[in-house]
Amino acid sequence: MNRFLGKLALMGGVAVIGFAPPSQAQGTGSSQSAARADTPNVTHIIVTAQRRQERLEDVPSSIVAVSAETIERAGVVNIQQIGSIAPGVQVNQAGGATQPSIRGITSLTNQVGFENNVALYIDGFYAPDMIALNSDLGNIADVQVLKGPQGTLYGRNATGGAILISTLAPSKTYTGKAEISYGSYDTLTTSAYISGPLTDWLRFGLAGYLRKTDGYLDFAEPTRSGNAAPIKQQSIRSKVQADLASNFTATLGFNYGLSSDPRGNLFTPRDHITPATALLPRATDPMEMSYNYRTANRAKVYEGTLKLEWNTDIGTLTSYSGYARRNSRQDFDTDGTYADIASSENSYREDTYQQTLDYAINAINGLDLVVGASYYNDHTRSTPPLHQTTYGPNRAFSFYVDSDLRTEAFAFYADGTIHLSDALSLSLGGRYSDETKKIEMVGTGALATLLPLTVRRASFDKFTPRASLRYEIAPRTNVYASYSQGFRSGTFPVAVGAPSLVIPVRPETITSYEIGFKTAQSFFRFDAAAFYYRDKDQFISLTSQICTSPTNCTFTSVLGNAPKAKVYGLEAQLSATPIDGLNIRAGASYLHARFGDFPNAVGTGLNTTTNTNVLNQTQDWSNKQLPRAPDFSGNVGIDYEMALAGGTLLTAVNANYTDSFVIQNLSLYGPLAGPELAGKQRYRQKAYTLVNAQITWTDPSEHLYIGAYARNLTDKRYRLTYNGNSRGDYSTPAWPREIGVKVGYRF
Question: TonB-dependent receptor plug domain location, by residue (predicted)?
Answer without folding.
Answer: 56-162
